[in-house]
Amino acid sequence: MPSRPTRTPSRPAATGAAPTARRWTWAAEGAAAAALPLALLAGCGGGASEEARRNAAESTAVARAIATADSITAAARDTLACPKDGRWRPCSIADRLQRAGLVPHGGQDTTRLPFLTPRGTVWTVARAELRVFLYDDAAAADREATAIDPIRVAPRGGSFAWPAPAILINSANMVAILLSENARQAERIQLALEAGPPQPEGPPVPQGLPPAKAR
């Protein structure tokens, strides 16, 4: 009797790339995991220090650029707030005294004098007291300053009881009374203000060539 052929059970065929893809995924994950310590080691070496220095330099450059832009903006703001038009203002008075090496304070407290029309403001410069009266124009300031005796610093023919030696200052649209026991300091303040208010800045004047010398 012929023998029956033995049937070998068939295995199911591979259904697709899922196991293969899985193996590739594991390989990629393994490579990444192996590369991570190397990256960390490289990060702890000299390369990181160089990068840190480079980042710090870039941050410093950015900070300087911002500070420069802020200073330019502040300067432009000050120019707009305190224009140079040949008239005294509180800001130009403070600036002039500071440029003379003095440190003014105040400018907010008000004062009145019976022989001057506008309300004044009181400044202190070291131990000196400066009472400033600003007018709309120089003509009005000159008119009232002319009616004051420059020696007594009082209306002509009259007197006024000042708490310290007084000096009359008349410059453009300003009349000021300076009270100080220090004659040298008073002179510095007087010269700084009598030099005149900031003037408008005009276009540069071209300078002509000097005449040629005859040979």
Can you walk through the features of this model?
- Residues 12-31, 33-42 and 71-79 have low confidence and may be disordered.
- The longest helix is centred in the first third of the chain and has 36 residues, at 46-81.
- The chain is elongated and about 80 Å long.
- The protein contains 5 helices and 7 strands.
- The protein has 215 residues and is an alpha+beta fold.
- A 5-stranded antiparallel β-sheet has the order 1-2-3-7-6.
- It has 2 domains: 25-81; 90-194, no CATH class.
Provide the domain count.
2
Total beta strand runs: 7
Oligomeric composition of the shown chains: single chain
Radius of gyration: 42 Å
Distance between the termini: 146 Å
Task: Please summarize the sheet with the most strands.
Answer: 5 strands, antiparallel
Q: Which whole number gives the mean pLDDT?
A: 78
Spans where pLDDT lies below 50 across 5 or more residues: 12-31, 33-42, 71-79
From the structure above, extract its key features.
single chain; 215 residues; alpha+beta; 2 domains; five-stranded antiparallel sheet; two-stranded antiparallel sheet; 5 helices; elongated
Concise overview:
The protein has about 220 residues and is α+β, with helices and mostly antiparallel strands.
